[in-house]
Amino acid sequence: MNRESTIDNKFSAKAVNEPVLQAEKTSIYYGAFLAVQDVFLDIYKNQITAFIGPSGCGKSTLLRCFNRLNDLIPGARVEGRISFHGENLYEKKFDKNIEEVRRRIGMVFQKPNPFPKSIYENIAFGARINGYRGNMDELVERSLQQAALWDEVKDKLKQSGLSLSGGQQQRLCIARALAIQPEVLLMDEPCSALDPISTLKVEELMHQLKEHYTIVIVTHNMQQATRVADMTAFFNAKATEKGGKQGYLVEFDQTEVIFQNPKEEATRDYVSGRFG
Ligand SMILES: Nc1ncnc2c1ncn2[C@@H]1O[C@H](COP(=O)(O)OP(=O)(O)OP(=O)(O)O)[C@@H](O)[C@H]1O
């Protein structure tokens, strides 16, 4: 996508909202391998932004940069800028505060990964580590309510989180993320391990959560993107001379534009199921 059309898209969406996170000419490497190149993208407050595109185009790689989770991968490196409320997230100032970055920008993974602890402790543990001094019972209830799980677990808070169904475990992980009061939730294919009913529950939950949180979701499920996302970014990958693949952002716009009237032919082909 050329820079001008990115700017056009940016301005049309900016009129609606302010960006919380921004990628500006962001390229991400694993060692010498350039996985994603020159991404310009804004994530708007209280909106859901979906990343879609074929396997290996760098959706998860970019997502993990938004809370510096890629720092944990040896050899991973970011060029260009990622900013959070206008401040460069990769500045030294944030190096010392990386836990705070990840508290404010939480993450939910593909596979539900509750701690092997009680349902109650799954919520309380992180809050305690983050220095929460308020009423813990209230926080546990509030977080489970927000994650639309309270009614299902209120009578068994001492049971292991691992005793819950997959869909419940994922909502427990969302509750755990919410308990440390983030501003942003990054969700990497949060429903791919769930059955259709649990998937719909998580999607309903996302609609409720966006009133208070900004959400970015990586999804392979295009119906899911159309159901939940306000904005959608379509990524693709091109073959490199060395036989690898390099990801790039093709088009970023309001979800209905991406699915009904995209500007790029590649987007049209992908959303109509012609490749991917
Ligand atoms: N930890 C890593 N070390 C080295 N290369 C990696 C690592 N993680 C991802 N890659 C490479 O970076 C590229 C982008 O991968 P990424 O997982 O971000 O793509 P994706 O679009 O999320 O794919 P999928 O939809 O299959 O999850 C791929 O070529 C992948 O092999």
From TrEMBL:
GO molecular function: ATP binding; ATP hydrolysis activity; phosphate transmembrane transporter activity
Location of the ABC transporter domain: 21-262
GO biological process: phosphate ion transmembrane transport
Keyword set includes Transcription regulation: no
Record-linked PROSITE patterns: ABC_TRANSPORTER_1, ABC_TRANSPORTER_2
CDD domains according to UniProt: ABC_PstB_phosphate_transporter (cd03260)
Gene3D superfamilies with a match to the protein in the record: P-loop containing nucleotide triphosphate hydrolases (3.40.50.300)
UniProt entry tagged with the keyword Heme: no
Entry GO CC: membrane
Keywords: ATP-binding, Nucleotide-binding, Transport
SUPFAM superfamilies: P-loop containing nucleoside triphosphate hydrolases (SSF52540)
Pfam family, one: ABC_tran
NCBIfam families: 3a0107s01c2 (TIGR00972)
PANTHER family: ABC TRANSPORTER I FAMILY MEMBER 17 (PTHR43423)
Protein name as catalogued: Phosphate ABC transporter ATP-binding protein PstB
Organism: Limnofasciculus baicalensis BBK-W-15
